[in-house]
Specification:
71% helix, single chain, mainly alpha
């Protein structure tokens, strides 16, 4: 079993599609970092000019607690093109690296060779683990690249709750207390959350491979499902229902609620893992 998982992980993380996805997502992440760094530098130059004009004292409120690393990384940006593009394409970033692998291996007859040497259940467990890991990393690594890039230029000041309107994090939001006390932990939790949902969305692509006999459909179906959730979200008046929004660390449309996020993760895992194991056992490969 361990050897099978290692093989699947190697195939997932060393194929060209994973690399292409990582490069594309990282380009958007770096462009976002460059944009936000430029915004911060413009504000910083304005503050220096204000101090110089007023004898070394800022005449206007410098708003320093809102001009921090934790509000300038892509996970907290809610005004630029790059954050919109990244989170809109997130389902494709998750599915494209390896979500299609079962469909292609079934089509080429590779699955027949594997199940003659090991149990079907082991193959599908290893496949699920590899697809989940590839999808999660394809989403999380660009976020980490963006955060580290911004951290090189923007100070990691602890945000102040008095500036919550500018920080984009309000108290009913999940983990909001951490944002104003331990912001680095808050960011780490959101990166982990993106990893988990990236993996679950990739697993949706894996499950789609049981239903459709088209590679494009296998990759794009999770994207369309996420867009559908985003549309349904417009009818919610309070809590955030769309992963495309609640994977962002600030409030985009509605307020993210931890129980809703957890319930969606549990449902997605139960559906994708359950179908993978059940359908994998029932599916005829010969």
């Amino acid at each position: 079993m361990k050897a099978l998982i290692r093989t699947e992980l190697s195939k997932a993380l060393k194929n060209k599609y994973f690399l292409i996805t990582l490069i594309a997502a990282s380009v958007i992440a770096v462009l976002s970092a460059m944009n936000q760094i430029n915004v911060y530098n413009s504000i910083y130059k304005y503050l220096l000019a204000d101090k110089e004009a007023n004898g070394g004292v800022c005449f206007k409120n410098p708003w320093l607690p809102s001009d921090t690393l934790y509000t300038y990384w892509i996970g907290a940006d809610y005004s630029s093109l790059y954050f919109s593009l990244f989170f809109l394409l997130l389902p494709l970033f998750a599915a494209f690296p390896y979500g299609w692998s079962y469909y292609m291996e079934m089509k080429k007859g590779y699955v027949k060779n594997v199940v003659t040497r090991t149990k079907k259940s082991k193959y599908f467990l290893a496949k699920y683990a590899a697809v989940f890991t590839a999808g999660g990393l394809a989403v999380m690594i660009p976020l980490l690249v963006n955060f580290c890039s911004v951290a090189c230029f923007v100070p990691a000041r602890t945000p102040n709750v008095l500036y919550d309107a500018y920080n984009g994090v309000v108290f009913p939001q999940m983990w909001s207390r951490l944002f104003y006390t331990h912001p680095l932990v808050y960011v780490e939790l959101y990166m982990l959350l993106n990893f988990v949902f990236g993996g679950l969305i990739a697993a949706l692509s894996l499950v789609t491979g049981f239903l459709f006999k088209n590679r494009v459909a296998v990759v794009i179906t999770p994207f369309l499902l996420m867009l559908g959730m985003n549309f349904v979200n417009t009818y919610s008046n309070k809590w955030e229902l769309s992963p495309l929004n609640f994977l962002h660390s600030g409030t985009i449309y509605n307020i993210p609620n931890g129980w809703i996020v957890l319930s969606k993760a549990i449902v997605l895992f139960a559906v994708t893992f359950g179908i993978t194991v059940w359908r994998g056992q029932k599916n005829e490969v010969f």
